[in-house]
């Protein structure tokens, strides 16, 4: 079973940001997958987006703190990895809320009009290929017995998937790294803003992992890896250009002190390895989420219809 799981997850075609069921990106795991996005889930998505934006605004303004020029706060806000991650969280939350709302409104309108929602295509249909697109009589969709093909994932869904995957891994990584390797009681104030920026972000993203229905691919670890690598490269360029942090120190973070290149290089390698470890842990968590949800649906189907499975369970099995 474990070997089969690894074989399935390590297929190279899964490197692409593509998926056969777009509505999974606008639904919660805890609903019937044949239905439009649950209203409570749409509300949750907007609440999540609002919370992230509120935290970001408080972070930019350094709310509740005094003693530093506002211009310095604004100009140097983008030099911190924490704020890169927070910005990414805001973008994915807003995009996720927009997609869920659009799908909710569209499918409700179509159902009221007596039409089948466009997202409810046959879940067993393979991806469309050049052969599938051939004219009638040449083995394509026009040939007898052809099956309606699943459309490729829309661009906005792909963007949301990438941002969401990055945000989950990076947020948890930032929280762990900050409290273990960066936080210094003699320098950092343990106030509400500090907790919101360095703990609430990962808490909100963990809730998102448990609530959402879309998958998280193991091979997609390269997205947060690339994100962190770009930041590390930025920190080096920023150092070489003579940049300083808010306290006019030459290193943005003590653990990223490029005046000690050997140690910092080791830290970077360890940090990138930690990103992979965090991503793997989150991947395992979403597997557990999907398994629990599927078991609940199977139990409900067995109770209502004997041993006959609910079609919603069959749809889950395609994930």
UniProtKB/TrEMBL annotation:
Cross-referenced Pfam families: Rost
Superkingdom per UniProt: Eukaryota
UniProt keyword annotation of Nuclease present: no
Keyword terms, alphabetized: Membrane, Transmembrane, Transmembrane helix
Protein name as it appears in the record: Protein rolling stone-like isoform X3
Native source organism of the sequence: Frankliniella occidentalis
CC annotations in GO: membrane
Segments traversing the membrane: 43-64, 84-105, 159-180, 192-210, 222-244, 264-285
InterPro entries: Rost
